[in-house]
Amino acid sequence: MILITGGAGFIGSNFVLQWLAAQDEAVVNLDKLTYAGNLRNLDSLRGDARHFFVRGDIDDPELVSQLLREHRPRAVLNFAAESHVDRSILGPAEFVRTNIHGTFTMLEAARAYWAGLEGEAKQGFRFLQVSTDEVYGSLGADDAAFCETTAYAPNSPYAASKAAADHMVRAYHHTYGLPTLTTNCSNNYGPFQFPEKLIPLVILNALAGKPLPIYGDGLNVRDWLFVDDHCSGIRRVLEAGRPGEVYNIGGNSEKNNLEVVRTLCAALDELRPAAKPYASLITYVKDRPGHDRRYAIDAARIRRDLAWQPAENFAGGMRRTVQWYLDHQEWVASVTSGEYQKWMSANYQERGAA
Ligand code: NAD
Ligand code: DAU
After folding, report:
1. The whole model's pTM is what?
2. Which of 38, 107, 209, 354 shows the smallest number of beta carbons within 10 Å?
3. 3-class SS at 160?
């Protein structure tokens, strides 16, 4: 079996669902269920003995060691993190605790567990760290895309916390020989994404007739990847990646934020027509402090060495995503009460779009 952390979040839950659809190997899923974790994402696995959910913190050394001792996984995949840049700007402490110290705790527990393994079990064991392209900093319009040797230059507290964790993972391989793998992926979108991130936020605001907040001039560029493709990339890296190696994963799909929002509005105009075009709700608001201008991933290594490539394109993935949110209003209602409303006021009121 494998142990994954953060498997009730956006990417983690998509990963668990994809994993168990593709094979029978069981998953132990450790998740703290913060505001971003949601067991509803895993409703379709109710009663499935291959999925074993544990509510807990990756920064709890006793719990993590106990899970490793009891379940003896062949791999640990660390998805758990605080993941929203704007939250890291308003409150960085939790990012330091979970993303840095939590990853350290996972590494320490994995190191002790791995040291006690023998033979094939020891040779085959992997610790896979799920990381982000934000660790590489910001690109200018004409700069080459991030590759695995691009120097780290994280700009937000979120990016810095992920960078620190990546450095610890690297050190555990270099110093102790722990068979680690690191993936640095670009922006994901798709089902089950918490609506604090641009794409689900715009879909839900549009449906509610609320402003669609565009930070700054709307020309910041991200490299968008449909979440299923990120998950298939991680599975491929786990299967065939070289221990100690880093793999960038990206969609080769650079878009500026205005293009993204206009694409969403056009899809909504078609699928759920309203009195006025949804693009009329676009509202420019105060920029994100330190807002990175452009991210772009060079995914040549994973394409060449592991024969991975994305299956979905931007137009198709965006349409599927809009349709998913239209079809899952109950899920939307379950995540947009209480805490979500507080976050929306905290982040947008002072920007003039709450
Ligand atoms: P998310 O915020 O949707 O989910 C995070 C999950 O981790 C939640 O289920 C939460 O409950 C859990 N969690 C948080 N703190 C925890 C703790 N201390 N102990 C145990 N569980 C905890 O995040 P996501 O977008 O699914 O991102 C998953 C991973 O992928 C993160 O490591 C993130 O940095 C990375 N990543 C995300 C993207 C993206 O576009 N979303 C892109 C590249 C990499
Ligand atoms: O690049 C990978 C990263 O992508 C992941 O590591 C992060 O976990 C994930 O959250 C994402 O970070 P971003 O900051 O790029 O994503 P977000 O959806 O928050 O913002 C995307 C772009 O849209 C960014 O340029 C900021 C802008 N934006 C965002 C929001 C929430 C707006 O213009 N308005 C908004 O209301």
Report:
1. 0.98
2. 209
3. helix
